[in-house]
Specification:
alpha/beta, TIM Barrel, five-stranded parallel β-sheet, four-stranded mixed β-sheet, globular, binds zinc ion
Length: 289
Amino acid sequence: MYVAISLDIDPDANSAVEGRHDALSSPIEQGEIRVDACKKGLQKIFDLLDIYDIDATLFYEARTAQMLIESGIDLPKLSERHEIACHSLKHEDFLGKVSGIPRNEKSIDASIGKAKEILAKIFGREIKGFRAPYTRINRTVVKVLERLGFQYDSSETATLGTGWAGKPYPLEAFDSSLMELALPSFRDAKGKKMSSYLWAIFEGRRVFGEYIDAAAQARDIAKGGLFVFSIHPWHLYVDCKGNQFGKDQARKNLENLESIFSQLKQVQGIQILRQDEYLEAWLGKKDSN
Ligand SMILES: [Zn+2]
């Protein structure tokens, strides 16, 4: 089985807001967008990825990338070994689930097109992957992604074992042939549902061992498939409501994350790679069959 480490690089504790298209940092009453915790967390994660020699996939919200660069960090250099992918322009609520204002095709096209352009310019690379804000996509978003030349989406969640073995699949449900590299959902030792987003770890509700066990378990079900982990860098330092973690919790978060990286490297039969590399290899194998 293959494992990808993906980061959703977006504003601290971001939340969709009723009546506006873009996201704000929590508490939304302050009307602010902050990236301080994102910056601090991202720098720590870059260090760890280097220490453990892991190439990751970075889903950048274009506005956040711009803000991080303005804050003085050399994002292109720090991101050099990793895949650059797109996580929208301003974390738009495209479907209007919370904002109450669903976007039409033209405006979705304008937002994602601009985001892709900004990222391509900052990083000087081709942007192949997309992950939607709140991981919400629909027919219109998928159509736009296809038209803008994306090679894959990575927003859907699929349940491992119920007919899905971690393999890429075309988004036929949206009348599209765009490939999906879905996020896995699975069960812990007690049968409780788990997701590969590391939310629960950073909120102190799960420990690293549960994720390592899950990956080891998935190895047999998802032979040749991809198990995508997801991390919000800001979540090392603030909770979903925007409260700063105390020193102890922040230290625990870092230790948990480091343990995930170090232990994943040691699990037999698991290879860690970027999502674009996995897709390329998978498509190549399919063609030669
Ligand atoms: Zn996000």
